[in-house]
Write a structure and sequence with these properties.
The structure is a homodimer. Chain A is an all-alpha fold. The first copy, chain A, has nine helices and no strands. Chain A binds a DNA duplex through helix 1 and helix 3.
Chain lengths: 193, 193
DNA sequence: CTTTTTCTGGACCGGCTGGTCCACTGTGGT
DNA sequence: ACCACAGTGGACCAGCCGGTCCAGAAAAAG
């Protein structure tokens, strides 16, 4: 599919409009017609830019949102080289999800598109990159002698990822951010030894 | 609504049949007609026993499954009074979710019924009871002098809940149970100090 | 045995939603 | 000027799915 500048702009408008919609409103039943209305486009355009329809569009939105998740944690996530940096990262994660509240765009997408290979791939990629940064941070702290060498960096990084995911899920269900905080704080405590 | 013995049996058959279906098959798009077919009932019966339709039925199934989640961890979860007991509990959780694999009945229900008050209440109740047992376990370990008193039992219990939830979610997305294991092991390590 | 209530089966409906189709318009290249 | 193709709009369709309704069987009540 060849795209002109105008075409690329429209395609992007659809993705970002859909993402904005998911971030603001109840995402339980997102329909193509909702997105069409919000982005000021037509059915023809949606299927022109996303020939495979709903799934292709939603996966594009999911990838867009997945990038945002990591971007929102930068520059902290990329430089976990001191306890202060870890605290700043912690705060940025809490702040991000507190602002997001109960609406989780990625979660909404995933429950819509189900567990297709494409969806799993988006989530896996995000979690892998996320965990990679945390693991790097732990390893650097160990090299600097700030974290004991007996800590299994990969395992604890996995625990961070799981704790964050679970904390966000609890936030979505109960509206309380306490679990996310507890998870991050406990694991950082664990690193401090 | 008055129920005879036969009626109660049918109602239960619907709930348990639906639960079994969610446990085995891809639960992305569960429809009332699926449940009707599997349980060998008719539309009339479903709406007879669950007048509010889909949501009422699905919440009943969710409550049923939520009870199972805790039951499957007993008797270990109720008596976390030694390190051996904690390990047994850990193993039972891992075993349960390894057996369950990618199909998470409760998760499927929740993504179907959305974030209605009823659904949130079911999840909140489950998580609260779960966390209560873990907190009690930590407190007992502290009283026995096996865990240092400086540990905030409630906070670490919350971290356990978040870690488990996140681990299960990663399992659903990637099929790997590593995150669940990492989370439990890291937090138990943390308790060991 | 009659009456009343519960239980069961399934035909039917209305609306929603993803997806198709086609006509029309813009636009860039030659 | 022309042409080919990208972009746009929206009417239309088919299937699905939650939900309604009613008629008849079974069983409790009297």
């Amino acid at each position: 599919m060849r795209l002109t500048a105008k075409g690329r702009a429209t395609r992007q408008r659809i993705i970002e409009g859909a993402a904005a919609y998911l971030r603001s409103d109840d995402p339980a039943g997102v329909t193509l017609d909702d997105i069409r209305a919000i982005t000021g486009t037509s059915k023809g355009q949606i299927f022109h830019y996303f020939p495979d329809g709903k799934e292709e569009l939603f996966l594009a939105v999911a990838r867009f949102e997945a990038d945002r998740v990591l971007d929102d944690q930068q520059p902290h996530l990329g430089a976990l080289t001191s306890w202060a940096a870890w605290e700043r990262w912690r705060d940025s994660v809490i702040a991000r999800y507190r602002a997001q509240g109960r609406n989780c765009p990625l979660g909404a997408l995933m429950s819509q598109v189900g567990s297709t290979p494409g969806a799993n791939e988006v989530v896996s990629t995000l979690l892998n990159r996320w965990q990679f940064h945390v693991r790097e941070g732990i390893a650097e702290m160990q090299e600097a002698g700030l974290v004991r060498a007996s800590v299994d960096a990969d395992r604890v990084a996995a625990a961070f990822i799981a704790g964050i995911q679970g904390g966000v899920q609890v936030l979505r269900s109960t509206g309380s951010i306490a679990h996310l905080e507890a998870s991050l704080d406990t694991l950082i405590d664990h690193l401090r030894g």
